[in-house]
Amino acid sequence: DANAAVDLATDQSYQMLPTLQETDFITPTSNNNITIPEGGTGAQTSIVINDDLTIEGVQIKLSAVHGRDSDLAVELISPSGTRSMVLSPRSLLINDLDSSPNGITDFDNTVLLTNAFYGESSKGDWKIIVTDTNSDWFSFNALRNRSWYKLSFRNNTSLGVLNQASIRIYGH
Fold this sequence. Notes:
By secondary structure, the chain is mainly beta. Helices cover 5% and strands 47% of the residues. The strands form three sheets. Strands 1, 2, 4, 7 and 11 form a five-stranded antiparallel β-sheet that branches. Strands 3-8-5-6 form a four-stranded antiparallel β-sheet, with no helix packed on it. The protein has a two-stranded antiparallel sheet with strand order 9-10. A hairpin with a 2-residue loop joins strand 9 and strand 10 (147-153). The longest helix has 9 residues, at 2-10. The relative contact order is 0.33.
């Protein structure tokens, strides 16, 4: 309702939100270089946030090495239990598969954003789970020059590693 929004914005009693604050990227106290197993268990790390902000958004910064980035799912879980899939598997992150040495691709301080925790408190124990969701071939159809063709990639030959993960909170 645009009229109601304009009326609210011009109302003299309207209270503005407090100044937006952001934390630094906060890292776990341990659990660096965690092996990402094949299958559903995933590599998990926890980060304790001491700041008590009302969340607007959360960024996750990730460094990981894996043979096939498209297999990875990255999930962030808030202290209240809300879950956000910040990177979905089968994402077609395949550009560097053919050109990288030894078929190894990676995330190098890659920053992802989620607004799934809007309005929650930032304080508490956050969990990051990185899961290798595919232990078989990864195949899909692609269109090039008006022709369809199938691309297939073998599974990674070695397990991936979650080197580092951190989160930043934006809130009030």
